[in-house]
Each structure stands twice: as structure tokens, then as C-alpha cells.
Design goal:
Two copies of one chain form a homodimer. The first copy, chain A, has two domains: about 50 residues, Orthogonal Bundle (Arc Repressor Mutant, subunit A); about 130 residues, Tetracycline Repressor, domain 2 (Orthogonal Bundle). Helices cover about 70% and strands about 0% of the residues of chain A. Chain B binds a DNA duplex through helix 2.
DNA sequence: ACCTGAACACCGTTCAAGT
DNA sequence: ACCTGAACACCGTTCAAGT
């Protein structure tokens, strides 16, 4: 099961790996199938066996991105202990860290508007975001957050972390202020959704 | 001062207008300088007089986008009357409307991470976003929002509306639920930032 | 099954030259 | 000052052909 030579059965995985690196370093627009093929030592037509066109590669990248995001969020959540608020803070922090390190990939993952999302990407997205909804359920179970459909307040939470990521990535706020913004926004979210006691 | 023929002194404005339409209909990736030139009946090298390269055109589009966003936000705010909460709701609504109608342009405006923002774009952005900060100041003056630096809570507000826009544009939530999400998120923001009374 | 090489229609960018 | 036309180096995509 060890990795074989790239152009002997492992080309798909190699393409994804190289593409993810390229997107991180150069952005989506600069991602070139021909350049990828060159770096992996195959002909420019070889990728077509694994990805029928450029868009198919982008979809695969988005799916892999959601999978990785999900595992990073879950790890951050579990490492933060059992208490609700630190858990939420840590998870939001992990989200923004992902978004900052892979800004172009995040754009790709949530492109959604200009190239309709594949069902398989949709599913991967919901899997990653389920961590946030679990957190909301925990908060509700502990009586910290207001009751009601978890979906409603979960959506507000998701919008909150996504908004922080967008503001940081948009260059509106300096990266050094990122932690402070996370703390403010999450504290604000909790206060706003707090159970009436 | 009336509009002269496109290829006689008005090419720059014509390029911007046509490019904005193209970005709205086809997204940024499909925007082609050669195609634009074709549609306007000039040679493919003519745009170069007004925009040294493709990126320069994108920056100009972003700047124009922020200017338009600013006027739309301000109009929505003033039309909503004097009361704080309806004003905030209306302004957030206008923001999301802009984001929905010009999703690709919004991406371009906040690209920031992968092509560093020009100072002139930065300034246009701050001008548009100043509407949000004014709203925060009004809320503070009326004692509805907590005191403290308006920048801090203004940033949280901005992250909130940007997050709503991202969630709606990302296809996570159906467009029909968009109004409900806005109402929820803004109400949540106000509760979370409410003055301790 | 997987890859190659040539071909096609497109790009952005550059530059000498025209008016 | 503003635009043209040819040229260059790159794309994504297609397809017959190789192993």
C-alpha cells in the first residue's frame, strides 16, 4: 500500500496534493492543469483520465477541503475539554486558522454561487459543519443557549465564524487583531443567544 | 458631456460597465479582456491604454463596487427612518441584497488575501463600511448598544453581515430563508451587544 | 486501463507602427 | 494621445494512437 511512483497508479492523489499546494501558494486562478502535469512528470493530457476537466479537479479539492476542515474542527473541539464556552472559542479559532492558512481553498469550498455545488461537495460541507451544530446542541442541553430548532441558531453561529474568516481574509482587519475579533464575536454570539434563564 | 462613441474617448468607462456585467453573469474567471474588446468593437490591445493589465481592471471594478455598495447602504439606512433597530435591519438587508446580486463582484472586492489590496481600493472599502460604523455610533448614542470603542463592535457587526452574505452565497442556506437568517443574526447581534442597562 | 503527442481555439501581454 | 496588427508564450480540451 506504500506510495508508488506518481505516474504509475497514484496520479489522482498526486494531482490533488500538488493542486492543493498550488492553490495555497498561488490562488485558484493560477492553478494550471498543464503545470501540474509538468511538475508530476506526465503528459498534459494525463490528468484527464482522473479529472475530466478543470472544474472536476476543483470540486475534488473542495470536497477534500471540507473533509480536512471537519477533522480540524472536531480535533479542536475535543481538545478543548468539556466546558461549552471554551469549546466554542477553540472551534471558532480552528475555523479561522483554517480559513487564514487556506484562504483560496475556502473561497473554492464556498464558491457555490457561480458554479453550482455538486451533491458530493454539499454532503462534505454538511459533514464539516455538523461540528458547529453539535456545539449548539451541547449549549442548549446545558441551558446556556436558548432552546428552539438547533438549525436556526446553528446557522447564526456558522455565519458568525464565516464572517470572522471573511473579515480577516479580506484584509479589513490586521491578522494580529484576529484573536481579539474571534473572542469578541463569539462572546457576542453567546450573549445574544443566551437562554433567558 | 454626453456619451460619445465607445472607441472615441469613453473606452475606459465602457470597459468598466461591460466588465461589471460580464462578472455578474459569468464570474471573474471567465472575464476576458479580448472578449470585452470584441464586444466594444476595438482591437484587443486597446484596453491596455486604460488598464495596464487584467489585474488593474479588477482593482477598478472592486473600487467601483465599494462605491456603489456604500451608496446603496446609505440609501437603505436613511429610507428606514430614524429608529435604530429597523435601520440596522434595513442596512443589513441591503448588504445581503448587494452580495446576492453581485456575488462574484463581492468576492473580487474582498479578495484581499491573494492579491494585496490597493490603497485606493482600501479607501473605497472603508468609505462603504463607514455606514455600518455610523450605525454603531447611533446605537451607542441611544444607549441601545454597549459603549466602548465603536471600532470593536463595528467590526463584529461587519463580520455578522459579511457572514450572512457568505452563508447565503455559499448555498448553505436557501435564498428563501435569507430574510429569516438576516433577522435572526441581526437580532442576535443587538442582544449580544446591548448595553447592560 | 492508462498515458502520449499533435492539434485547435482560446488567452494575456508586448511592441513596432499607424493616425 | 489613442488605437491597430502581428507575434509570443501560455492555456484547456479533444482525439487518434500507442502500451
Amino acid at each position: 500500500m506504500g506510495p508508488r511512483a506518481y505516474h504509475h497508479g497514484n496520479l489522482r492523489a498526486a494531482l490533488l496534493e500538488e493542486a492543493e499546494k498550488s492553490v495555497r501558494e498561488q490562488g485558484i486562478e493560477r492553478l494550471s492543469l498543464r503545470e501540474l502535469a509538468r511538475q508530476l512528470g506526465v503528459s498534459h493530457a494525463a490528468p484527464r483520465r482522473h479529472f475530466p476537466d478543470r472544474q472536476a479537479l476543483l470540486y475534488a479539492l473542495a470536497e477534500a477541503g471540507f473533509t480536512r476542515l471537519g477533522t480540524e474542527l472536531r480535533r479542536a473541539m475535543t481538545r478543548a475539554g468539556e466546558e461549552f464556552e471554551p469549546r466554542l472559542q477553540a472551534t471558532a479559532s480552528a475555523y479561522v486558522r483554517f480559513a487564514t492558512r487556506d484562504a483560496a481553498l475556502l473561497d473554492l469550498m464556498f464558491a457555490g454561487k457561480h458554479n453550482e455545488p455538486t451533491p458530493v461537495v454539499q454532503e462534505a460541507a454538511l459533514g464539516a459543519l455538523s461540528v458547529l451544530f453539535e456545539l449548539v446542541e451541547q449549549g442548549q442541553a446545558e441551558g446556556v443557549l436558548e432552546q428552539g430548532e438547533p438549525g436556526r441558531v446553528g446557522l447564526v453561529l456558522f455565519a458568525t465564524v464565516q464572517g470572522i474568516a471573511a473579515v480577516v481574509n479580506g484584509g479589513i482587519v490586521d491578522a494580529s487583531q484576529s484573536d481579539a475579533l474571534i473572542a469578541d464575536a463569539i462572546a457576542n454570539f453567546i450573549r445574544g443567544s443566551r437562554a433567558a434563564a
